[in-house]
Amino acid sequence: MRNALDTLYKAGAALAALALIAIAAIVFTQVGLNLIDSISTALFGVQLTLLIPSYALFSGYALGWATFLSLGYGFRQAVHIRVTILEGRLPLAARRVTLTLVSILGAVAAGFMAWHFAHLTYESWLWGDKASGLVKLPLWIPQLGMSAGLIIFFISCLDTMVEMIRFGQSAALKPDTTVEDAVQ
Amino acid sequence: QTTWQMPTPYPEANFHTQNIKLFAEEIDKASNGALKIVVHPAGSLIKHAEIKNAVRSGQVEIGEFIISNLANEDPLFALDAVPFLAASYDESARLYAVSKEALGQKLGEQRMTALFSVPWPGQGLYTDREINTVEDIRGLKMRAYSPQTERLAQLLGAVPTQVEVPDLAQAFSTGRVNAMITSSSTGVNSSAWDFLTHFYDVSAFLPKNVVVVNQRAFDALSPELQQIVKDAAAAAEERGWKMSAEDHAAMRKILEEKGIKVSDGSEALNASLKEIGVTMGAEWAKEAGETGAALVAAFNAAPAQ
Amino acid sequence: MSDTLLSLILVGTLIASLALGVWVSMALFITGLIGMVLFSNAPLGSVLATNLWTSSSEWSLAALPLFIWMGEILLRSRVSRDLFEGLSPWLRSLPGGLAHTGIMASGIFAAVSGSSAATCATVAKVALPELQKRGYDEKLVLGAIAGSGTLGLMIPPSIILIVYGVAAEQSIARLFMAGVLPGLLIVALYMGYISLWSMLNPSKVPAKDPALPFITKLRRSGSLIPITLLIGGVIGSIYLGWASPTDSAAVGVVLSLLLSWWFGDLSWASFKDSAIAATMSSAMIAFIMAGAAFLTLSMGYSGLPARIAAWIGGMGLSNGTLIFALAIFFVGLGCFLDGVSIVVLTTAVLLPTILQAGIDPIWFGIFLVMVVEMGQLTPPVGLNLFVLQGMTGRDLWWLSKAALPFFLLLILALILITVMPQIVSVLPSLMYDL
Ligand code: NA
Ligand code: NA
């Protein structure tokens, strides 16, 4: 179970990193095409139609994937920041209570988000909503990836909550981790 | 007392927003404060792209958006954005008259009632150089933001280019784009004189904004209130069309004062553009199937007003 | 329920959930949810989902992760070390020495990036480890990076000036020009402060090195060539029209990868690590921004900021008093909302008052950016503080104390542009009103 969950979070983060790479690739390709076009115009006086249709739209969606699909892993690695000034001054028993409370709040809020985002995706599919612009892209496609991210995020919050309730501690709620710590 | 939240996409000073504020005031007055509409302009509550869905799902009761934003969902929503099909206020009014029912039905399928619809002034051609015939457009980079404008650029022999609105100034000054089709007021709002030289008032098309209300929210009103809303909507539509024409004249003057060379375009240019309009109208009708063909036929048969 | 009570409930919820130790992003969402329940009967879940969707998949934000990734790549290559070795011969004899590099790097980077968070994150990534290694006072250095990160908003390109330009119907090109001198003014104030502080606290600054002959300085600056090429490439791609300001972030990533490969620092492992670390950092920041967007939406439903703004506008104040009242109002809002939200929520309501008072809307845009910059540095919601907390593990309170002098310097800059509005207006009028 532990291994399966950790693999799930990692898979989400890997997909998120791919989405980040995709943003760079899409945008840089468009810049490269602009460059080819301006060279061709300057040297041969020929303007070319070189465009990735709706590249800005696709980059925006990839950003949504990069953010949401990495949430589960990020929360488990304690990358997402909390204000821990008061917490650090509490005795251990009291800290156990506050952290359990935090984990419950997190799980409830994440569950609420995941459920309603999935519903939004379903509605987009039901009504056939499409992006405006050059490409007739159904909105449920980008939304599906973000839904998956929020579901993984919800699972990671449940995981943390169960750990807090059963063991009184969770690696996801340790204070003051930096991103560098998490990656190493 | 009922309160409706109303997101609109355009800034406070825009004539569409001003018209909607008058609409809200009239309803407030006529209903003795029983129905209040809180207008949130400039996408400050809901961003433009989501206003339609926000009304559909009841997040807000009422909202405004530009119809052609939905062009990818159904060809009918693209009708008033077909270039050079209906290229004046009169023609645009005729096109609206023949398509109003179909439009209302399409929006009704998504649980919304269309209250009123007001056009933007005719979309003109902005360029960074002089244009006398369509030949002069050939090879220019033209901004494309929808399948229709992309196709128009192709038919003109221009190179369709994607530029987001905030990047317009940079794109024009660096030559990444040489021409765009947009309204006189958008030109003024983006200070087009900082990066452009010519405006050809060719009135390519008059895209319309529509104000829609969530069906359930509307049905929840008493019959008297419903009537008040309908009356105010009818008044707003009439007023809006006038405001649009006045706005166009005023904005055109500002463009001129700020040093942009404004003209209606040569006869040769307008004749060639009209031809392209016929092609695009036929292409649209083909895509829109039977309904589309019937609409275009009805438009062509309708008497001039 | 009165406006005062509503505001107190919201502020109370936010502070209580932050104090409890709830994640910053989640605390913003929870406060927003409570606001929605109190202010409206709109379907909560569907409002939240739509807002998550629009605020998280936006093109204008796409540059944020790319700039952060660029920082992660540079950090893993010798380019970042070279930046210091190249700058040090010039800065080493100034009081404060290399502590100025954070500010200079921010200023340069701000000319490439449109956001405060991206500027702050990138400079912190590259500059912080080097400065710590050299024994500079951490508080001074982190405060300077937090403060100068906000230059990303003032020195063009700037996301917030675009948002203001659209909302207020002002020329974005003019706004960009107007931001240049105030940006340089802030750089000068910060560098002046660091020099002064270093002279007053000689014990906390590494020993000053003797000045070098000019030729030696020049030769040692050779190590600046790669970073100059990188920044030149990014800025050049914008001004030659190959890339929009947002596109240029991708140019930065590709050039950084090329440099890193050229120096032999690029391996599969470092590539993978940099991508994952950038994804994690940017997701953390983006999720906080989504939370802030949702809280903003909830405030929009309440109409609260608009009512307060209308109230200030309706008091019939003299221009001086009006500016002063607005500054207080915006700094207060800046404690709880992020910059874009503040601009979107209040511009429409305040602009008529501003125009009526005869205040130049371009000047007002710069004023707004400056107060928004301050908001990046104030707790409990200060984006630059969050960025640095995520990178250093230092707590929010410590960081806001470190940033306090730079917050005060922004107030000084605000006073200066109020007394001498020419600082704002001279460049745009030179450029466009010939
Ligand atoms: Na900038
Ligand atoms: Na703040």
UniProtKB/TrEMBL annotation, chain A:
This is TRAP transporter small permease protein. One of its GO terms (cellular component) is plasma membrane. It is a multi-pass membrane protein. Signal peptide: none annotated. It is found in: Cell inner membrane. One of its GO terms (molecular function) is transmembrane transporter activity. Residues 58-166 form the Tripartite ATP-independent periplasmic transporters DctQ component domain. The complex comprises the extracytoplasmic solute receptor protein and the two transmembrane proteins. Pfam families: DctQ.
From TrEMBL, chain C:
Its main location: membrane. It holds the Pfam family DctM. It comes from the Bacteria. Residues 12-423 form the TRAP C4-dicarboxylate transport system permease DctM subunit domain. It is found in: Cell inner membrane. The keyword Chloroplast does not apply. Coiled coil: none annotated. Keywords: Cell inner membrane, Cell membrane, Membrane, Transmembrane, Transmembrane helix, Transport. GO terms for molecular function: transmembrane transporter activity. It is a multi-pass membrane protein. The chain crosses the membrane at residues 99-128, 140-164, 176-200, 221-242, 248-271, 283-302, 322-350, 362-382, 402-427. One of its GO terms (cellular component) is plasma membrane. Part of the tripartite ATP-independent periplasmic (TRAP) transport system. The complex comprises the extracytoplasmic solute receptor protein and the two transmembrane proteins. Belongs to the TRAP transporter large permease family. This is TRAP transporter large permease protein. It comes from Falsigemmobacter intermedius.
